[in-house]
Amino acid sequence: MLALAPDALRAAAASDRRRQDGESLGPLDGVPILIKDNIEAIGLPGCAGSRALASSPVLSDAPLVARLRAAGLIVLGATNLSEWANFRSTGSTSGWSAVGGQTSNPFALGHNPSGSSSGSGAAVAAGLAPWAVGTETDGSIVSPAGHCGLVGFKPTVGTVPGAGIVPISPVQDTAGPMTRSVLDAALLYGVLADQTEPATAWQPPELDGVPVAVWRPAGLTAALAEVLDAVEARLAQAGAHVVPARLAAAEEPSGPFADAEFEALVGEFAVALPAYLAERAGSHPRTWPELLAFNRADDVELSQFGDEIFELAARADQSRAGQARQACLAAASRELASVLGECAFAVTVTNGPAAPIRYGQADHEAVSTSSLCAITGAPSLTLPGMLVTGLPVGISLLGRRDHDRELLAWGLAVERLLPVLDYPEL
User: CA-CA-CA-CA torsion for 222, 223, 225, 226, nearest 10 degrees?
Assistant: First the structure.
């Protein structure tokens, strides 16, 4: 946790009174929830983990927070995150921010929770709240959900309002649910996207005869291959028609594909963050030179790793960034279409077991499957999979743009096939 909401108890008492008086705001009135601290909410820092924003007050709720409150949800507080949503350093350690310190994985406190929605994932896994909101540009919901044994849903970009969120890229940024069940994720997504439906509307479809692609990314360890083998066998037992997925160009996202995405993101970040800072109230750095100067003058900000991405953004070439965006979007669209083929959805692993927390070197995943949906803006869903060396490995479902409800419904069906995870008692 990075901060607690000062009005949470008053809001909970008001919810109790509404229910007693028969004036409930709906079935979710009174449900406690946490939000990632790069999302603006009155009474909370909304500082993205940076001391540069820690003293600048939040004057209004982000639209998504207003929707939560209108449905009666109780905002308990703000979760820690990888500072600036893990887009400050190429050698960052996920889960660390200068304001919040280091978030640990509840399954093994010396291990990484993944980022950047690390606090949201760890908090729900630790039982601090049933629901949390994370944000993702590429992997920042699904990866910490996978590492912490949760359901994480990265919606189609644009279905959840992005105003009031400290930005990286307007092309890829989105907020989304982090919960312990697919039904909870579906209900929370309905609030965030203003598409609420009763719980009874969510029924798992039958998998019998449904074509499902199984994607085996390069770099799978023997243990992860066994996890995917087990999932594939359970899908087949449920009657699904399992189809091996292939990338069109046999190009994994860890190659030139990722290079183009990174260049595009740096260029978009270079414009989006100063524009956000210019509009935010308070006294804080507003330009790249001011941000860089603040970090160098502060005794905590650069204590664990640097700000190389800030330096790149300060001198970003917008023409090259635009070309990189076009290139990675075209490639990712082609590759996602190839992986899905004619199938209803694709299944793959989300992550490997969490690595130990260590500073001075990047903790990026050797296996990453989030980029295809991140770049194309398509929805992706991770489910609690199985434990490997006592640490959770997530199972990802990949879908098509604007088919969020369908992907969540398939998630209900696949969830029934997976073992129930025992969460740690802390």
Answer: 120
**Counting every residue, how long is the chain?**
426
Residue 380, Ramachandran bin (φ over 0: left; ψ between -120 and 50: alpha; else beta): beta
What pTM does this model have?
0.97
What whole-number distance in Å separates Cα of residue 57 and Cα of residue 73?
22
Which residue numbers are catalytic?
Answer: 36, 116, 140
Residue 273, both tokens:
């963050």
Confirm if 324 and 264 have CB atoms less than 8 A apart. Answer: yes
Helix (H/G/I), strand (E/B), else coil: 244: strand
Torsion of CA 344, 346, 347, 352, to 10 degrees: -160
Sort 204 into a burial class: Cβ within 10 Å, 0-12 / 13-18 / 19+. middle
DSSP string, 258-273: HHHHHHHHHHHHHHHH
- What tens digit of pLDDT does each residue of 176-234 get? 999 999 999 999 999 999 998 899 899 999 999 999 999 999 889 999 999 999 999 99
